[in-house]
Amino acid sequence: MQPWLLWSAVSHTARLSTVLQILLYLPLTLATLSTSAFLLLSLLLSTHSLIHGTLILLWGSQALSVLQVPMHPFLLLVSFNAFAQTVHPLLTTATSWWGKILTFSGPSFVALEGLSSLLVAQKVGQIGKELADEAESYQLVILLASAAAYVVASWWIVVAYPTAATSPLASTLLGVALTAFLFLTIIGFRLRRTNIVESSMLSLFLAYNVWLCGFDQTSFTDPASSYAPLLSNILPHLQTLVNFIANTLPKPVLVALLYRLAILQFASRILPTIGADAWEIGPSDGWDGRPTSIMTRILLTYRQLIFVMVYSHLLLLDPASQVWWRWANIMFTLLLWSVELTVSPDGDDASTKWKVE
């Protein structure tokens, strides 16, 4: 086996181990100790991720991915140790402030998710327009795929409606969101500032959020109720661990976390292509010199810190709060789309040809 192939396998395994440790350790601490212990672990993991990202930014060595693996169990033991006895007032103050930072960061996380979703939908619309311009044979495929997306989104909303619209306010918000989406789609088509691919992608985004608003709350229980002392017998030990993972990791949080991280990842890849024409004018400026490229590098370098903070914030939210943040996400994204449709220039030039039919 080639050395580089072996090292690549070790590096990827280390990254996967890091992700799994963070996914398990944070709800484990929240379930078995207290919210303060959970906030301490989140703060320690965030600090470690910040240092880790900075070292990668300065050094760029893949060995750091392997070296950080034992750090997470150590930080978990530190958190358990700190709250196994009398807690120092400084720790209480630090965890309290960290909880406030995570709470106040909620709107920014929602805004980033909505902005990234709109950006990805527009990029998919651009790709669809370019394919349709290349060959007419692609047009039928694109129309069928868009129609299928509309059908899936409609079915998704209908299935989620009984649990998503459990109150007059929730049903009103759903009606407002659907009406606004239809009007914006028609206006975008009329002004030739959007296309069917972009609209269908946003319909899926709308259906996804409505589904999360009506996620069956009985699908996950109180995390503390799933914890049991570990027995000496290995089989009950494994059974306890499996039950803990199944009942403690809240499914809506994992779904929201996966989507939010994925959409941020896709958006960060799209950012360097924004304003490409303007940057191509100067022959001395390269791709790496664009501001959006620098922003992408920062986002990808500190993605572990973003992962910890987003996950911690989602775990702190109760089901009711998650629902209202979902509605806020829907309304913000539709508002952002309406502004984008209003300010987009007309015409078929190179910068806007993918936005028109």
Automatic annotation (TrEMBL):
TM region(s), chain numbering: 20-44, 56-77, 97-120, 140-158, 170-189, 300-317
GO (cellular component) term, any one: cortical endoplasmic reticulum
BP term (GO), one: septin ring assembly
A Pfam family it matches: ICE2
Record key words, sorted: Membrane, Transmembrane, Transmembrane helix
InterPro entries: Ice2
Record carries keyword Transmembrane helix: yes
Record bears the keyword Cytoplasm: no
Domain of life the protein comes from: Eukaryota
Protein name: ICE2-domain-containing protein
The organism's taxonomic lineage, starting at the top: Eukaryota, Fungi, Dikarya, Basidiomycota, Agaricomycotina
